[in-house]
Amino acid sequence: MKLPLKWVSDYIDLPKDLRVFTDKMTMIGHMLDKTIETDTDTVIDLELRGNRADCYGILGLCREAHAVFGGRFDIPNRVALPEEPYDGFSIHVKSPDVYRFYSVVIRNVKVAPSPQWMQTRLRDYGMEPINNIVDITNYVMIESGMPLHAFDLHRIGGDRLELRNARDGETFVSFDGGTLTLQSEDVVFANSEDKVLGLVGIVGGKESGIRDDTTDILLECAAYNQATIRKTLYRYSILTEAGLRHTHDLDASLCDFALPRAAELILTHAAGEGGAELSGTRDYHPKPRKLPEIDFDPHEVTRLGGVSVPVAEQADILRRLDCVVKPSGDRLVVAPPPFRTDITASEDLVEEVLRIWGYEKIPSRALSSAIPLPVEQKELELEERSRDILVALGLDEIITVPLIDGAVIDAMKDPLKPVTIPVLNPPTANHTHLRTSMFAEHLEVAHKIFGRGDTTMAFYEVGKTYRKNEDAVHQPPHKPGFPYIEHRELTALVSSRDAYWDYYRLKGVLETYFSELGVRGITFTKEDDRTLSYPFSLCARAMQGGLCLARIGLVSPMISKSVFSLPYYVYGFVVSIDNLAKATFTLPDYMPYSAFPAVILDMSVQIPAGVQAGDVLATAQTGSELIREVTIEDVFARDGIRSILLRIVYQSKERNLTVEEAREIHNTVAATLEKTYGATIVGRNAP
Amino acid sequence: MIVPETILTAARQDLAAVKGISQLEEIETKYLGRNGKVNSLFKNMKKLAEEASKDVKEIGKELNRLKQELERLITEKKELLLADGGTGPDIDLTLPGIRPRIGKLHPHTLVRRQMNDIFKGMGFSVYEGPHIETDEYVFERANLPKNHPARSLQDTIIIENPDILLRSHTSSVQSRAMENLELPIRLVVPGFAFRYETPNQTNHFIFLQYEGIAVAEDLTMADLHGALETFCKMFFGRDTKVRIRCKYYPQVEPGCGLDIQCKFCGGKGCAVCKRRGWVEIAGAGMVHANMLRMNGIDPSRYSGFAWGMGFDRIVMQKLNIDDIRKLYNGALI
Q: In chain B, which residues have their Cβ closer than 8 Å to the Cβ of A423?
């Protein structure tokens, strides 16, 4: 809200130091946005918050300043309006969104430029002068915060003005010449011929407006349902000064000031020869707002504010804010002034007392109450640890937006499309659906990385994916039956020109990641289901017991190459953080070195088709308590037969193991492998 | 043969006494130089062979072994001296090191952890809630009933009209926490929120909010002031000046804005702070009695404070990132 300071000084005395004024206004809730120097005045622009409809007028803010600084507060002159109704013209309100409609008919006006001082003030505020009648309505709106509108009485068309909801599809030619197609939620002025003259509270039409030859006017001032006005205002983007004020909770009582004030100015500055004449009023105000009376415990100021303000001081502050305050025992009964539509309850009064008393007097106290038991959200802790481990393993962290392009989902042939959640109002044409996985965005990032000339990439994201909840299984904290679920996931993607990043290196990253987290006993099994393996064309699942913790694989070249034009194979994994939170964690094994030497023996094993090398390894590892470690040293295939070279380290913690002993166990392991997998042992030697 | 053994022993003693490179070079000349001891032995091979009643070839082999051993001892000593003298073997100490490759954390993670750590020190826990929310949790329970003017300022991304949407702020998590946890609570909620907006340099349809809430039987604005001042001093620097001023937010009453004094002008007013002398950091206040009530908490017994910060702007300032979109499109790696 702009305050031209010369205008302001009509009503109050300003502190000599402007900074004192703006600082204090800022502290009590009206933050200085900027100071503007015009040719004729200094204008202070204060940021307004939505709950103070009364501060959209200069007087409202002067009242605030007066409560703080005291001194004079001059309310401008108003003429006494006649109570009898005007003749020959009637008002018909047919919309529940009209709360009050107060109007006066003024005859014998003379349209001319408004006085120079008024024009200057309007310009300082930021409005262009038009003519004396229109300028006066604007002037009083800026002064009081309450918009007014003047019709040329003889150009309304007929002898009645109706305020009603628009009919769907009804059209209206706006002041600027544009045609609006209206909806039934909009409230309009209509004349005797049922023609729409304007959108109430927002904008009038050209035809019924004031012209140079206007002699008789209908001047009105009204209160509407702010929600309705707001919807209409934003629907047609007609951001008029009047409309913006009506989107706030303006109290109908402001009409009692604004209408006689404007009439006074018209009689003074726009009278025709022999003087203008007030020929009656009509006031539609069926249900005046019931004013609250708040039973206020002054101790609340201490309980919420942390300061002690004497009760007498509190009462004084509230009175300076135009509240009616009556002591009642050790409590106060407080009736806020009608224009303070924001004050409805005890806590509102606490704020009133505190802000005038001074927020700067609220001390800063170290939190001293009992510290609550920390809340455990295991998923969050796992996410943070995951980030650190993957960064240590050479992957960069990225964050991408969870809204993706529906066209990309189609191009990727995502099998989850049926459970993908579309948004009703996409913020852009490329952000139409919530992601079910992070791949669309991540492959796009990969495309950019290779596009700028990089030859390698490795990154991950920790975030959420979303899908429709088909089984009505719910994710806490949503209630059962909530139709959507969110998953916490970690997705990593790697690719490089020199094949540095291949499946095994990425799998190594995943294995180290699990072991660093303390998740042990992970087995990898091949996933053949095309839906479950998407977007991988080769995919393995990382399981701890029956719990699937991750999927890892080669991103289908049909996606990485064909859809995203990526030059090299892309490998990736997806960890379910939700499932990880259910996994079994063990502390790291700090195994002291055995003081006794180890015996190392190799075993070359031919394995039949269909047998997984990983299974053979796992069996060998559990062959004996004296086996410290089994590694796969080589994998090779000849004539279609796969062979692996196992290296087994035999060691005891208690004694020297003889080579003979070790060989004996070695033979047992060999026999187990032959029996379990039909493997053929083709060599068993010391390396 | 006795002679090589004697020479070797003498050489060892000589080398043990060597203190510098020049001395070592003298020793090298003494034994391996053209007129050194080894060469003089080679010259007298025949004589030596006779004395030892051995074949000349045999003596030659022994002398070669002696020579090799001496060379080895001298080289070893030389390396020790060089390394000890700080000049090292052939190392250019100014060439860049070979770094192991580690990844980079996202700026959000760095800053969020810094904030989390500060608040954890004050007894706060980190808490999170769903992104897909109901109108009830985003608006009703945040004291934004239908037709509230502030709703129009928060144009939401809608999933199902009118009741299911992407949360437009993280106050929904405050409600979920108050509903689900036992009091007292002290929580920080760093989380994404979404608004219907076309992304540009400074605004995006996704952004991170850093909210916090504390509810107990005895909390006042002095506690709010204290907790947030401590945070500001630890995050922005010990000398940071902090103020709270009255400001309206629907979720709180009394409400306040939290400012820090502008670091560029020291409060005098400059272009950075728009001549205000102060920079707004957060919106805050005492949790609105309606909000407590709607989440099953008796506002006459309990009180609480809450705050919310626009996190992206702080991250961008701290790390000199000029475009919010870069935080969300992988452009920073």
A: 157-159, 166
